[in-house]
C-alpha cells in the first residue's frame, strides 16, 4: 500500500488530501500538523475550515484511509510520498522583509524529513514557493541522508477557497515538475498515477522543477493583474459615466480575453495574491530585473488604491464624514463561502470607516466576532 503523509493541515493540505483519499481508496493518507487544536478539529464534527462539500468528503474516508495526527515524525518516517503544504507567508523582518517569502516553516519541515527518514521518499512541494526553492530543499535533504534517496517534485496547488472541493474534483490542470533525470521522471510518474485516479491524463502537465514553481506565481500574478486592470477601469468609468459591468461584459465576450476574473471589486484579498506577487517582485529584483519588478508591483499598488478609493467614496458621498453614522458591513471574509479573513479588503475598509468614527456593525456567517475584533486590532504585518 502506498503511504502518503502531508505536512500542514491547512486550507490546502486538508481538502487536497481528503480528495486524494476519497479518489484513491487503496492509498493511506495521513495529514499531520504541529497545531494540536487544528488536528483535533479535523478529527471532530467541526472541521477547522469551512469549505462547501468538505464535510462530506472527510466523513466518507476519515478513519478508513484518511487520518489526521500530530505525530508528525512517525507518519513522515512511514510515508513513501511526503507532501509539504506548510504556510509560506511574506517575511516581516530581515532581508526581503515585506516582499520575500518566509520559508522558515518549509525549512524546518525539510530538516525534520531529513532527520526522521529511514527509507527513500518523494518529497512534494505543495506550498507556493519562490522559483528555485527545490534546489535549496534538495541541499537540506541530502545533507545527512544516510544513504536515503529523496526525489523532490513541485506540485503547486491551484484551488480557490470557497470552491476547493469542486476545483480538486475537476481541476483545469494538475502541474507536476521534476528533475530531468531518470529518478526525477520516475517520481513524476508515481505522482501522476495518484492524480490519474480521477484527473484525465491530458490535464496532468509535467514540466521541469523551475517551470512548475514559477508557473504557480505567474498564474496568481496574471489572475490578480486582471482584477487590478478592471478595477483601474472602474475608476475611469466613474469619472466618465461608463458602466464598469457593461465594459467588463463587452471585453469579456472577446474569446481572446474571456469573461472570467473581470469583476470590479473593492480590491482582491486572500492569503495568496498579494503575497505571491510581492514574492515575484522580490525574485525579479534579485535577478536584476527592476522593470519587470515594477510592472508587477503596480498590480498591488492599484489594489491598495482601489481599497482607499472605496472608503473615500463612501465618506465623500455622506457629506464628507461618517462620524457617528451607523454603517452595516455584510461579509468580512475575503470572499463568499469561506471563513478566511487573511488579507481581506474588509479590514482596510472597516479601518478606514472606523478611522472616520463610523459606528460599524459587521456580520459574516462564517467569521466569529472574536476573529473580526482580532483582525481589526492588528497592525499590518502583525
Ligand atoms: N489557501 C489557499 O487557497 C492556497 C494556498 N496555497 C499555498 O499553500 C500553502 C499552505 O497554505 P494554507 O493551507 O492556506 O496555509 P495554512 O496556514 O492554512 O496551513 C499551513 C499549516 O501548516 C502547519 N505547519 C507549519 N509548519 C509546520 C511544520 N513544521 N510541521 C507541521 N505542520 C506545520 C501550520 O500549523 C498550519 O496548520 C502556502 O504556501 C500557500 O501559498 C496554494 C494554493 C491555494
Ligand atoms: O494560490 C492561491 O491561494 C489561490 O489564489 C486564488 O484563489 P483565492 O484567493 O482562494 O480566491 P479567488 O477566487 O481567486 O479570489 C481572490 C480575490 O479576488 C477577488 N476577485 C476575484 C475575481 C474577480 O473577478 N474580482 C475580484 O475582485 C475576490 O473577491 C477575492 O478577494 C486563485 O484563484 C487560485 O487559483 C489559487 O490557487
TrEMBL record:
Residues 328-380 form the UDP-glucose/GDP-mannose dehydrogenase C-terminal domain. The keyword Oxidoreductase applies. Pathway: Nucleotide-sugar biosynthesis; UDP-alpha-D-glucuronate biosynthesis; UDP-alpha-D-glucuronate from UDP-alpha-D-glucose: step 1/1. Gene3D superfamilies: Cytochrome c1, transmembrane anchor, C-terminal (1.20.5.100), NAD(P)-binding Rossmann-like Domain (3.40.50.720). Keywords: NAD, Oxidoreductase. Its EC number is 1.1.1.22. One of its GO terms (biological process) is glycosaminoglycan biosynthetic process. GO terms for cellular component: nucleus. The active site is at 272 (nucleophile). InterPro entries: 6-PGluconate_DH-like_C_sf (IPR008927), NAD(P)-bd_dom_sf (IPR036291), UDP-Glc/GDP-Man (IPR017476), UDP-Glc/GDP-Man_DH_C (IPR014027), UDP-Glc/GDP-Man_DH_C_sf (IPR036220), UDP-Glc/GDP-Man_DH_dimer (IPR014026), UDP-Glc/GDP-Man_DH_N (IPR001732), UDPglc_DH_euk (IPR028356). GO terms for molecular function: NAD binding; UDP-glucose 6-dehydrogenase activity. NAD(+) binds at residues 8-13, 33, 38, 86-90, 127-128, 161, 272-275, 342. It is an enzyme of class 1 (oxidoreductase). It catalyses: UDP-alpha-D-glucose + 2 NAD(+) + H2O = UDP-alpha-D-glucuronate + 2 NADH + 3 H(+). Belongs to the UDP-glucose/GDP-mannose dehydrogenase family. NCBIfam families: NDP-sugDHase. This is UDP-glucose 6-dehydrogenase. It comes from Lotus japonicus (Lotus corniculatus var. japonicus). The lineage of its organism: Eukaryota, Viridiplantae, Streptophyta, Embryophyta, Tracheophyta.
